[in-house]
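Hi L.,

You mentioned the student needs an example of a multi-chain input paired with its predicted structure. This one should do, with 413 residues in total across all chains.
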Amino acid sequence: MNPTSKKDHARAPIHRPESQPSHPMTASNQPTTADALREMLTAYLDGELGEVEQRDVEELLARDETARRELRQLERVWDVLDQLPRAEVDTRFAQTTVELVAVAAEEELQRQREVAPRQRLRARLFVAAGFAGSLLVGYLLVGAMVERRDDRLARDLPLLEQLDEYRQMQDYEFLELLEHENLFSDESQDGR
Amino acid sequence: MGTQLATAEGSSGPHYELRDPDVRLMMAVREGDAQAFEELMLRYQNRLVTVLEHLIGNRETAEDLTQEVFLRVYRARHSYVPGAKFSTWLYTIANNLAANARRSKSRRKEVNLTTQGSGPQAANPLAELAQAASGFMPARQLDKAEMRDIVRLSLATLSERQRMAVLLNKFENMSYADIADTMEMTPQAVKSLLMRARVNLKEVLEPYLEEGSRPRPDPST
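Structure written out for the whole complex:
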């Protein structure tokens, strides 16, 4: 017997036969050392022991007839399960399964079809909302720009109103001189 | 919970995809490959029916459940993320469906019992076996069909969890870790469960194995 190890698991202590009662269970249904031995033997047969545990079990089996008998019985019972019949389904079974899945697929498609118009409407609404939003933002931006241009015009209005007169002046020093002598103080106040 | 297992460990997906060809097939199913689905179905239908038949004890129900498993697999394809071996995922679905079926069956049974009472069909297979083992059985070699029936009945004496663990271990060669994933247990609990199952089977089957090894009496004597 040399089971292939599937996976190493947490190690449980090996209970030596000298300290083991041979009964499988105590009256209170609590695990016994015999259970621990059987657990190890079962895991050994299933190839679920790590290297060290496997070696320990083999050493135990080499020196203890009770453990060997227990192992033989467990193994024999397990082998008998091979007599359980294996199912073989016919081609109709596969065909029915495929048909069931096809029906499920059709239902799924139908649901998608039903959901699709709602999704399309939602997408259109989203696009429309986005469009309206950008329109609003654009309007506000343009409005702000136009407002800034109007402000400048209002500020420069006194200058524009007297632009022809200002153009008749030869230079800036002459205007400063007039300002200095307060000849047009009222008008200049009004024009500011 | 079937699909939860598959999505729970999404980060290890590529690992399973590389190692498990069935996971690769399922990934193809996810992408809409119908042939991959058919391939998976053909690979697993007999195995599933076998496990479910021995678990439930009824071929027709086992077939219905198997088809339901494949239906669930198909419906869950879009959300499938490989977080375990494909067979582990598949048998998790099967185990859950079987548990649901058993629950609804026991509910129906409760109703029947209150109306009909217990009949001869309600006989406990374990009691039958124990009676036969205690000496009522003829001392002759059991033929193959008889032995198969006895093994089937002995399996029926196990608890549902023990039976499922035995079937996954025996028929699907699942490791304790995979059985633990499928049945939502720890590997240590699976170890104890399988030990207990083997001991129970041994207690029931041992007398038959002894009888079965006895040579048939010579008719001339």
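You could point out the following to them. Chain A has three domains: 17-83, 96-148, 162-192. Residues 96-148 of chain A form one domain.

Best wishes,
N.
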